[in-house]
Specification:
Elements lengths: L11 H6 L6 H10 L19 E2 L2 H10 L2 E8 L2 E8 L1 E3 L2 E7 L3 H6 L3 E14 L7 E12 L1 E2 L3 H15 L3 H4 L5 H5 L1 E7 L2 E7 L17 E4 L21 H8 L9
Antiparallel strand pairs: 1-10, 2-3, 2-6, 4-5, 5-9, 6-7, 6-11, 7-10, 8-9
């Protein structure tokens, strides 16, 4: 049972793509059908294995919407820094957040950043050590992160992050108050310079290696959600919300092979 879902009403473009979870082969199929794409740049254009690249917005959105966390890289005092963070998407914007007291996050708000999301779909075991690989879907985003100042904008972005992680949660919880908003730094990164890269399928060996007496194939990997564990201090009359139950009850979507 996979732990991601795509019923978030904030992701209008994702709904038009229809697939709940896309495999690499589905990405190729969708890429041929959709027209809206980003223009490759010097930073996003894939020169090696370019057939694995996609610049289609819908594909980029699908991968971002299925991921749960990202890695954000930037230069701080002449040193590279990469930090894992939760994120959310609304339309063509990504949002990340953290403590307003964080020097690292304040630095990122004034820097060019590189944000990456990777979904690992399987291990690819070849007949030779050289040709071992992984099946994956990934997105790389470049741009300048900007800090949101207005309280309404920050609340909207925080809702996008919350609904990305657990759709339906924002409606139940207490919203951030003015003190908490002041203590939170929210950054926006526009999706104007980005690309996706996807690998799917079995290993590709040298012709002569196919005769070797070595097992070869794929080991599929999925992110699983275990049954929810209630807070020990939870009041006895409070039941588990349906949106939490759905995380563990929803079966994986079948892969489309073309």
């Amino acid at each position: 049972m996979v732990a991601r879902w795509q019923n978030n009403s904030l992701h209008t473009t994702t709904r038009r793509c229809t697939a709940n979870r896309i495999s690499g082969s589905e990405v190729t199929f969708m890429s041929n059908r959709l027209q809206h794409s980003l223009s490759p740049t010097k930073k996003t254009k894939l020169n090696r294995l370019s057939k694995r690249a996609s610049y289609q917005r819908c594909i980029i959105y699908q991968i971002l919407d299925e991921g749960l966390f990202c890695h954000v890289g930037f230069i701080d005092s002449n040193y590279p820094v990469v930090i894992p963070m939760a994120y959310g998407r609304r339309d063509n914007n990504l949002y990340i957040h953290g403590s307003a007291a964080s020097r690292i996050l304040r630095t990122a708000s004034k820097a060019q950043v590189c944000l990456t999301v990777t979904l690992l779909d399987g291990l690819v075991l070849a007949r030779s050590a050289f040709h071992h690989s992984m099946n994956y879907r990934s997105v790389v985003v470049f741009g300048a992160a900007s800090a949101l100042k207005e309280s309404g904008q920050k609340l909207s972005a925080l809702r996008a992050i919350s609904e990305h992680i657990m759709p339906g949660r924002w409606q139940d919880v207490r919203k951030p108050n003015n003190v908490e908003l002041r203590q939170t730094l929210v950054l926006r990164l526009r999706l104007t310079e980005a690309s996706a890269k996807i690998r799917t399928g079995p290993p590709v060996d040298e012709d002569e290696d196919y005769r070797l007496p070595v097992w070869a194939g794929e080991v599929p990997i999925s992110l699983l959600a275990r049954p929810p564990v209630a807070d020990p201090q939870l009041r006895a009359e409070i039941v588990t919300p349906d949106y939490v139950k759905k995380v563990t009850l929803r079966p994986p979507s079948p892969a489309i092979r073309i």
